[in-house]
Structures are given as structure tokens and as C-alpha cells.
Amino acid sequence: MDCGLPEPEEREWWAGCLTVRVEDSCFAVQRDFLARHSSYFQALFHSGMIESRRDEVHLRGGVRAKGFLIALSVCRGESPALDDPDQLVDAVECAAFLQVECLAQYLCEIVDSDNCLLLYQAASTFGLRVLFHGAALFLSDSFYDLGDVAEGAIPQDLVDYARSLPAASYVAIGTHTPSVERLHDSFRVVCHLDEQEGEWKHLTELPTACSTSMAGVAVLDNRLYIVGGVHGYRKDTVDGNFCYDPETGLWTALRGPLQPRHDFTLVGFNRRLYAVGGEFQQQLISATESYDAAKDEWTFVCHAPRPVASAACAVARRRMFVCFWRPPGTTDIFEYVPAGNAWRLETTMVRAQSYGHCMVAHRDHLYVMRNGPCDDFLRCLMECYSITTGQWTTLAGQYINSKGSLFTAAVRGDSAFTVKHMLTLEYAVTGDGWKPRRQMKGFPKSGSLWTCLLRLPRMGSVVPQLDADTEKEGKRSLPGTAEEQAEAV
């Protein structure tokens, strides 16, 4: 949020400290800090009213002390644990009243099956539309687990709205090099899993210039990005880079990274794409770039800790993690921190003759798939790392790689999906491992696969009305159409 720069004669006042009184507590906070993070304070300080110049502001309604303290913590870049229901409600009320965008986003990112219904109803009550829609999407993804609980626990119009939203679909793409216009290749398709029928169906065809061989594939803001890749026996890097929007069903071309690369890691995080490492002219590289989709612009950021190719990555609790392996059996997990443009070593996993080649996140846990014993490379073992406690746990069970490709997985709600040529499996993610939930048909094409989650459009969303108490108290209302709801995300 851009609060603008004050005039030179006002800068001393602007940088001064303000006492904010909430209930019986007082907080000393810098004015510019409040203006950066809260639209409420930004408007107050620019209003020209007498209150804007006072050394103390008393927030008499709409905010509790615990909620304000949580907001300050999140605005400082911290990730407070919000396990108590009262804390969650206070945080929602504060985010809505003071219009603290980063707190609203934080609440969206900590939605899980334990707090989903509470946050959904609280967001409806206080008119926090981005959280309202985010919690509704999570409930849409989790009706298998939460549907029976939701009925009767929250108003029926909220249940109906969540049911009207499309659950995220499991999407798979085969590995292909560029084609030519005059040759129609029926294998160059993107497929989605129809869970009701238990089989894979056609979603779209790849652009002819698009390569998925050693490319970067990621989802950002519900758009599928395919960047780079190779063609030819010399593995020359291709120039074609594409974005698929499921809402329109159209592919658009976009600029490629400043550093040509293939076999790199592409991850959607913090409203940007990040391209990490890769290979160029038969050399591993550590160059890392950030892509701004609104500007169609790549910029270099801090180099990765060391050259790496095809590194596993995951985003958990607003944090981006990447695996870097060191032979013969060490996997270092680094976090990239955008605020400081720096890499930080999070943890190290040491397993004999093994490395992490796939990583997914569920809540505050990273699940790392690693190859099994050296004489059975196609069997995966799973390690679980808690970013909260810093502890590693080896989970029971083995997971079979698909023939010709390494393990691939995606997490939706409390489910994990994996696929190979013969079988697609859904697992229930629990505290002690992944438990098989159901199986469906395998991907109809052989070879290595890319997988991700996309929300495919569904017509006829029904937007619920606000609680009567919300309108009576004059709290901000939710948007009145499905389109406005979508814009809020």
C-alpha cells in the first residue's frame, strides 16, 4: 500500500510515534508504520482533521487489544500461532475495521480444516471479503471432510455458496518438446481429473511452440505458467513461454527469464513467480529471478545458495522453501525471504544414498519424498519436517514412482493426490502419515508428468447475504456478485 511521502516540513511529525489506546491497553507505534499497513490510519493521517495530529488515538469500537497485537505482529513479518478461537475472531475484526491487508492475507493462508468454519462465518459477520472467499474456497475443496460438519454449524447460505464454488482440480501435463502447426499431436494436451467419474479428461492443448521438457511449471493466481524447456538432442533452451487462464480457456505468450535456462525450479509465491537455478549451456547455475505478471517483467534477485537443477520446492505458511542436495545423501532446505532478498538455511536432512526430489506442504509441515534404497530407486520414502518445531519425522510406508518419472504430488485441503500411468491415488493427510483414501484411473499417456491444481470455472455462484447484525452495526458489506467476490481474492 502506497501511503505517499509527506512534505519535507512534515517528515519529522510523520516519523513520530503515536500512542494507540485499545480497551485498557496502550501501544506505541510509529505513524509511518501504521500508514503503510492500515488503510484506516492512512486515511486518518491524510484527513487534515484535528485527530490526525494528536499524539494519541483511542480505538473505541471494532478492535480488541488482542486483535491489534496480532495485527502488529503480522505487519512486522511474524507468523503468530492463532490456535484460540477468540484470537481468530479478534484478528478478523481488527483486519476488517482497520483494513489491514497483510493480516487479511495471513488469515487466508492459515485457513485449515480446524478453523475454516469459524473464519468463514467471522469473515461474513465483519465483512472481510478476501477471507470470506478464501475460506469458502477451502470449504469447497474439503466437503469430503467438512461437509457434514458444516451443515448446521454455519448458516445454510454460507454452505450453499461454498458448494457453488469449483473445487481445485488435479491437473497433469505430459513431457513434450515443441511441435509445428501442420502436425497435430493428440498427446500434447493438458488433462484434469474428473473425480466423479474417476478418470482423466481433456482440458486444453499445449501451444505448438511450448515445451514441457525440462521446463518450469507453476500456478500463480489460478493461472498455469510454463516457462523455458528444451528442444533437440542438444537440449537447446526454447524461447516460448506461456500462461493458461482457465477462466477464458486461452493461452498467452509472455517474456522469458533474463537468464536463459532449463531444468530449473519455478514456483508461484508472494504474488510472483520465482525461477531458481537450472542449467544453461551444460552448466548448473544459481541465478534466481522474480516475475511480475502485471508488468510481464523479470528481475534478478539474490542468487541461490549454490548452483542447482530440478530442485524440489513448496510454499508453507507464507514461506517459500527449496531443496538443495549434496551428494551422497544430504538435502539442505533453504528458505527464500523476499523482504530481505536473502536465502536462509532452514534445516538439513541426512539420509544415506538419498535425496529429496519432491516436496509438498500441508499446514506447517513439509513432506519430502526421497528415493529409497539404492537398489530400488523407484520406491519413495517420506520424511516430514515441521517448520514450527524444527523436527524431522520418518513416516511409515512406501510410495511407488510412476514409470519413467519421479514422484509427483499436490495437496488440496487435507488430501494429497499422486498419479502414475496405471493409477491415480488420493491420500488423507494425517498426523502420522498419508492414508490411502480412494483410487482412480491412471494418466492415459506414458512418460514423465507435471502436476498442479487449478480451479476450473463453474457457472451459477450464489452469493449469501450479510448477517443482519452486520448491516445494523454499519460494518463493511461483502460484494454483491460472484464477480466482485472473485476480484477480492
Helix proportion range: 10-25%
- Low-confidence parts lasting 5 or more residues at pLDDT below 50? 1-6, 8-13, 465-489
Tell me the number of structural domains: 2
Task: Sketch the major β-sheet.
Answer: 5 strands, antiparallel
User: What is the correct CATH architecture of the largest domain?
Assistant: 6 Propeller
User: At the fourth CATH level, what is the homologous superfamily of the largest domain?
Assistant: Kelch-type beta propeller
Q: What value does the average pLDDT take?
A: 86
Shape: globular
Structural class: alpha+beta
Distance between the termini: 16 Å
Quaternary form: single chain
Which CATH first-tier class of the largest domain would you pick?
Answer: Mainly Beta
Q: What is the CATH topology classification name of the largest domain?
A: Neuraminidase
Number of strands: 32
Features:
Potassium Channel Kv1.1, Chain A; disordered C terminus; 489 residues; 35% strand; Neuraminidase; 32 strands; four-stranded antiparallel beta sheet; disordered N terminus; alpha+beta
